[in-house]
Please model this.
Amino acid sequence: MIKNYFPIDQSKSLNKKILIQPLFVDQKVKNSKEIKGLGDNKSWSSSSIIKAIEKDLKKGIKNFLLFIVPNKKQKHPEDFSFHYEVIRKIKNYFGKDIVLLIDTCLCSITVDGHCGVTHKKSIDLNKTHYSLGLAANTYLEAGADIIAPSDMMKNTTKYLRKIFVQNGFSNSQIMSYSTKFKSHFYGPFRDVAKSSPKGFDRSSYQLPVEDKVKAIKSSINNAAQGANYLMVKPGMTSIDLIRDIKKETLLPTGAYQVSGEYASLQMLSKAKFGNYVDLLLESLTVLKRAQADFIITYGARDIAKYL
Ligand code: PBG
Model:
C-alpha cells in the first residue's frame, strides 16, 4: 500500500495535519539569514536547518516543503550534489517523523532564473525534462518523500512518472503544482530563491489568471499524467477552482498561500492595521472553506498553537 500523506479532507475546520511549512536552505548562508517580508521565515544553512525543523516539530508541524538554493548556477543543470547532501542529512536525522516534500524546479539553478533550460528566449523542453529528471531522481535517492515539480512545463509529470518507473521508483509520489498562475505575488520568494527571470517573463509556461477553463484543464492534465496530489497557487487567486478540480480528478487538492500573499498579512500587522494571527487564521480558513485538502503557508508554525 502506498501511503496517502494528504487524503481528501472531510473536516470543516483547519488542523495542523494539513499544514505544510516551506523551508529554505541556501548554500551561501552561514547559519541563518532573515528573509525580507516573510516574518520568522529564514534561509538556513545545511546544518542549521536541523534545529529549525526540530523547533517546528515541537509546535506540531511535521510537513515541510523544501526549497534548496545552491551556490553554483548552471546552464544545463546536472549537478544536484548540494540538494542530495541537504535532503539526506534531514531524512537521516528525522526519518519518518517528518514528511519532506522537495520543490523540483530549475529556477534557482539556471543562470537566467527561468524554470527550464532556455535557448534564445524560449524553453528547450527536452533539456528541461532531462535536468528535472536528474534532479527528481537525486532527491528520491536522498530520501525525499514527495517530489513537487513547480516548473509548469508541458508534460513534466508524465516525464517524471516514466523515469521513476525506469529507475525503480515506481511507488514515488508527486505533488504537482498543477494550476499555477503567472502571478505578481511571488516577489519575496524570488528574492530568497534568487530566481527572478531574465530576458522574458514566465507567461509562456505559467497560466493566465483570467482563464478558468485553462486553469482547471492544467490540473486535469497533471492528474492524467500521474500526479498523486494537485495544488493551486496562489491560494487566494484560486479559491473558485479547488472544488471543480477535485470533482473532475477525485484527487486531493491543496492550496499554496504564496510569499506575496503571506507578506501582505505581515505588512498589515506591522502597520497596525490588523492582528497577525487573526489575519492569518481568516485567510487560511477561507482556503479550507474552498475545500483545500492541504495548505502550504509560511505561517504554518505560527498558527499551529491556535488549532
Ligand atoms: C519556482 C517557484 C516559485 C514559487 C514556488 N516555486 C516562483 C515562481 O514561479 O516564480 C513561488 C512561491 C512563493 O511565492 O511563495 N518555480
The chain has one domain: 16-306. The longest strand covers residues 19-26.
